[in-house]
Amino acid sequence: MVLRSRSGLGPLEARLLELLWARPRAATVRELQRACAGLAYTTIMTTLDRLYRKRLLLRHRDGRAFAYQPRCSRDELLSELVSGHVTELLGASERSSVILSTLVRAVRDTDAALLDQLDALVQAERRRRGSDRK
Questions:
Q1: What is the CATH number of the domain that holds 16?
Q2: Residue 21 and residue 15: Cα distance in Å, rounded?
Q3: ∠ CA 70-72-73 to the nearest 5 degrees?
Q4: Of 33, 63, 64, which Cα lies nearest the Cα of 48?
Q5: Rounded distance, CA 93 to CA 53, Å?
Q6: Are residues 24 and 65 in the same domain?
Q7: How many domains does one find in the chain?
Q8: Strands 57-62 and 27-28
Q9: Sheet of 27-28, strands arranged across
């Protein structure tokens, strides 16, 4: 699971987020407990509260309980996490070109077709920035 290994989330936090993303609506602790055999209600409740305090979940009252739903999609969270890491890396290096060339090599090694997508994204950003200056 990429989300857990790259985000600093614990395994149960990542698992609960994945379960919530798979659902069409908000879920209560009891509903999620059915999908997490062997886990105590209080463990799930505490973990969901921690995700709420991290601003990764929204919650609302559902009778006497809270119902939770993700604040953003999985892709939006991954995008935010990656953006933060890349920004930190660029700030930590005296030569940003080292970081960028490493990123390009990683893209190439993962899927050469992604290089074309990366190039298209760079060109679109250049066009957007050019139109912003006018």
A1: 1.10.10.10
A2: 10
A3: 95
A4: 33
A5: 32
A6: yes
A7: 2
A8: unpaired
A9: 27-28, 65-70, 57-62
Identify the DSSP state of 1.
Answer: -
Q: Is residue 1 part of a domain?
A: no
DSSP 71: S
Could you tell me the two tokens for 69? Answer: 């739903």
Are the C-beta atoms of 2 and 17 separated by less than 8 Å? no
For residue 17, is it within any domain?
yes
Distance from C-alpha of 66 to C-alpha of 45, rounded to nearest angstrom: 9
115 C-beta neighbours (distance < 10 Å), count: 13
Does 66 share its domain with 89?
Answer: no
Tell me if 121 is assigned to some domain.
yes
Q: Are residues 98 and 49 part of one domain?
A: no
Domain span at residue 118 reads: 74-133
- Tens of pLDDT, residue by residue over 24-73, are 999 999 999 999 989 999 999 999 999 999 999 999 999 999 999 999 99
Higher pLDDT, 98 or 29: 29
